[in-house]
Write a structure and sequence with these properties.
The structure is a single chain. The chain has about 300 residues and is an alpha/beta fold. The protein contains 7 helices and 19 strands. Strands 1, 2, 5, 6, 7, 8 and 19 form a 7-stranded mixed sheet that branches. Strands 10-17-11-12-13 form a 5-stranded parallel sheet. Strand 11, helix 5 and strand 12 form a beta-alpha-beta unit. The longest helix has 21 residues.
């Protein structure tokens, strides 16, 4: 057990956390960053990244996060691989405790705990994650140009990802467990009018099929929940779009959250409902979930935290 005291505590790694750390360290705040359960965040389960500025060639998500971590460390961020499990924001300094029984005391906090994709919880899904199984069409869709893909889900996210993928794939199969979509009417109309998109109603994915050498997805086994009939479809990739869960459970009853659990921040700001506590990245932005946007909000949070600390 150890006790750490800092002007600024950053909870969570990933693009938002590391960027916040870089800017805070350069401002002389000597921040401590607690990396969390998934060091590097969602990008560590992404294969190649082609849309992060500054890299002419694709870079693996794990490598990108490794470089951000090194940069943060080199400019003076104290990085501790630990996981915050309890927080007390009732007074300053704010107190957080970890699963390793460490105590962190901070005058200001930036929360960058992100949001975790909901998965199908299939063994084959885990096997091929990053090798044909993805949770982000915007991130990975480009790699399936001219190929056949599937999208699982029935809400706005699934419908929008299917429409996005139809711009450059050969075909998109949308798999939905019900006989009606939950997406808004306008999006549904676009979806149903798109001749590249086929919908498998009342269906669920039972197994993801693939090859071991190289590790890649080759198809799916789906089951109709009304008839129990099964069939196989050939696809090169599958995108799971059944929602995300913001990692905010320990902040409930302390910070203002949306009904879905995302942290509410002031307009054009990372300021939460408690002065001195800021939120950046996917934990407060459920719409875009892009690394470059998370990094930008991490920068904003650090600048706001620096201003807060200077004024207080």
């Amino acid at each position: 057990m150890a006790e750490y005291k800092t002007k600024l505590l950053i909870i969570g790694s990933g693009p938002a956390g590391y960027t916040a750390g870089i800017y805070a360290a350069r401002a002389g705040l000597k921040p401590i960053l607690v990396s969390g359960q998934q060091i590097g965040g969602q990008l560590t389960i992404t294969s190649d990244v082609e849309n992060f500025p500054g890299f002419a060639e694709p870079i693996a998500g794990t490598e990108l996060m490794h470089r951000m971590r090194l940069q943060a460390h080199n400019v003076g961020v104290e990085i501790i691989d630990d996981h915050i499990v309890e927080a007390d924001f009732s007074q300053r300094p704010f107190i957080c405790s970890s699963e390793n029984n460490n105590i962190y005391s901070a005058q200001s906090i930036i929360i960058c705990t992100g949001a975790s994709a909901r998965w199908l919880n299939l063994e084959s899904e885990n096997k091929y994650r990053g090798f044909g199984v993805s949770g982000c069409a915007t991130c990975d869709g480009f790699f399936y140009r001219g190929r056949n893909v599937a999208v699982v889900g029935g809400g706005n996210t699934a419908a929008e990802e299917a429409l996005f993928l139809s711009n450059f794939t050969n075909s998109v199969t949308l798999i939905h467990r019900r006989n009606a979509l939950r997406a808004d009417q306008k999006t549904q109309e676009k979806l149903l009018q798109n001749n590249k998109i086929n919908i498998e109603w009342d269906s669920v994915v039972e197994e993801i099929l693939g090859s071991d050498n190289p590790l890649s997805v080759t198809g799916l086994t789906i089951k109709n929940v009304k008839t129990d009939k099964r069939k196989k479809i050939k696809v090169d990739g599958i995108f799971i779009a059944i929602g995300h869960h913001p990692n905010t459970d320990i902040f409930k009853n302390q910070l203002d959250l949306t009904p879905e659990g995302y942290i509410i921040t002031a307009p054009n700001s990372c300021q939460t409902s408690i002065k001195g506590i800021f939120a950046a990245g996917d934990v407060q932005n459920p719409q875009y979930r892009q690394a470059i946007i998370a990094a930008g909000s991490g920068c904003l949070a650090a600048l706001e935290a620096d201003k807060f600390l200077n004024e207080n």
